[in-house]
């Protein structure tokens, strides 16, 4: 009998959400393998390749085991770029178990899924948000790197409604990029751009996964 369809999974683990507006909430992470952009500043390059071929029942069972050790109502599907793989059956299974779902995506792809919280993080070279994600995003995150410009920030702010928070996040919590992010925030405030705020990576400060 042929093996059921599988997804390539890099890891499944429970922790605290370390970034964004959901920071600090207990969360089960399902990190999928593969990425279509592969940015040089990525902090999960190990998820670009490989991964375990797992069926949906296998993923759900491992998620239940992690949940038993550290219960979390939220599940975050991340990567890599999770939307490179068909997540329909997985999200349906997680929803059937009563989970709230977050997807962290670079915004270049879209699937019509039962997601409660879309985190969209536009990346180079284009910093574009897929048209179907613009109104669905609960937060938009721009990683502040050495190469990102103020024009990139404003381009992203203009793509998404001002009602959607735009988070500027210094790469790896670097102090020089923290200053750059604050300078951008100050300029944006003076120019009356709304709902832009600083974000940090809490998990890197405290050394948790």
Structure description:
There is one protein chain. The model has no long low-confidence stretch (mean pLDDT 96). By secondary structure, the protein is α/β, with parallel strands linked by helices. It starts with 5 loop residues before the first strand and ends with a helix. It has a single domain, classed as Aldolase class I (TIM Barrel, Alpha-Beta Barrel), CATH 3.20.20. It contains 5 helices and 9 strands; from the N terminus they run E-E-E-H-E-H-E-E-E-H-E-H-E-H. The protein is globular. A 9-stranded mixed β-sheet has the order 3-1-2-4-5-6-7-8-9.
List the helices and strands and how they pair.
Elements: E1 6-16, E2 26-32, E3 52-55, H1 56-69, E4 74-78, H2 88-96, E5 100-105, E6 117-120, E7 137-144, H3 150-159, E8 166-170, H4 175-190, E9 196-198, H5 202-206
Parallel strand pairs: 2-4, 4-5, 5-6, 6-7, 7-8, 8-9
Antiparallel strand pairs: 1-2, 1-3
Quick gist of this model?
With 209 residues, this protein is α/β, with parallel strands linked by helices. Helix content is 26%, strand content 25%.
